phosphoglycolate phosphatase
Amino acid sequence: MLSIFQPIPAEAIRLIVFDLDGTLIDSRKDLCNSVNAMLSEFRRQPLPEEIISTYIGDGAGMLVRRALGDPHDEALIEDALTHFLDYYREHKLDHTYVYEGVFDSLQAMRALPDGSSRSMAVLTNKPIGPSEAICSALGLSPYFFRIYGGNSFVTKKPDPEGLNRLIAEAGVSPGETLMIGDSDVDILTARRSGTWAIGCKYGLSSHTVETIPSDCLVDSPSEWAKALSSGK
């Protein structure tokens, strides 16, 4: 159910920035399979998907570190990260799909009330290579003027560096920008940049999304446009 805490002014929003995993796409199974393939390589026991899913959202390095039990051996983590990424690059599209309602909502939200077009972009903590490949393969790329990944900048979300760059490149202000994501990382990024924020309760990290107040919470991508129009 759509929960609105602060109506978002549709006429003012000229840039919408989306998280990728758990927001636009369900990549849970491929990420979990890749983590367990890495664990097997290092003679570790596999982990349930429910556990691995709680580790997603802060980038591949943190995902691997958490899956290994946060060891203090940085060389091990780097080696494991390499194995994880090598496997994931080959299997990133085995089961990953675009959530129902995403394409219709992207189409509906790309036009401003006055008929001009909004800019849209992706800002994810997933490495840029697989992010671009997934967006291209699943037909998402044409909607976005930029796709930035976890290694596109020195920092990752929730540091606002990437979101601030997108705001500058789109030639808009924070008050004209909306961030949509499924985790506390996304909402915190929005808050640090001074933008509007929609939290997605259906995603991979949705257990965290309500820990930081957003302007609106949605249960599906189909509610994005309705949330945006609530501030008209």
In short: The chain has nine helices and nine strands. Strands lie at 3-4, 15-18, 25-26, 97-98, 119-123, 146-148, 177-181, 196-200, 216-218. The longest strand covers residues 119-123.
